[in-house]
Amino acid sequence: MPGGVLPRDKAQAHYLLRAPLNDPEHVLQQVAAMREISREGEEKVQGVRAVRYRGIFNHRTVTLRMAPDVRTKTDQARDILGSDLPVFADAWVDDRGRLVQTRMSVNLSGAQVTSTMALSDIGEPVRVTVPKAADTIPVNEVSGILNG
């Protein structure tokens, strides 16, 4: 059965703190935009000693590539709060300066969302198999929890 194909930059997030199509590059873009960063200490993560940095996301970072209906709800939540949503981000960096893990979280009066991305085999080559064009169908959008 053919699979749907959508350019990565056209995919949208349909849930708070979910990357479009679960794209790790999207998470890296968000983490790179952290503000008010503090060094939280050293920890062992993914079997590696790493320094944990903590920061916050502004509203633009939280809503990066968010689907319009979800963005509207997120904008409304911000307006009710009177400030940006309290989204915190953590990034663990090893002694070679490589990102090992990220975590993003928000807690709104008990409604909590946390998303963690663990990186492994850092520096190892990645093999990607591109499907044949005949085995794909162009699509305009995707949705659902598994698609981000």
Indicate the topology.
Blueprint (H helix, E strand, L loop, with lengths): L2 E3 L18 H9 L2 E11 L2 E9 L2 H4 L5 H14 L5 E8 L4 E10 L2 E8 L17 E3 L10
Parallel strand pairs: 1-7
Antiparallel strand pairs: 2-3, 3-4, 4-5, 5-6
Any overview of this molecule?
With 148 residues, the protein is of the alpha+beta class. Helices cover 18% and strands 35% of the residues. The strands form two sheets. It has a five-stranded antiparallel beta sheet, with helices on one face. The chain has a two-stranded parallel sheet with strand order 1-7. It is flat and about 50 Å long. The model has no long low-confidence stretch (mean pLDDT 87).
- For the termini, the CA-CA separation is 22 Å
> What percent strand?
35-45%
- What's the total number of strands? 7
Shape: flat
Number of helices: 3
Low-confidence stretches: none
Q: Compute the average pLDDT.
A: 87
Strand arrangement within the widest β-sheet reads 2-3-4-5-6
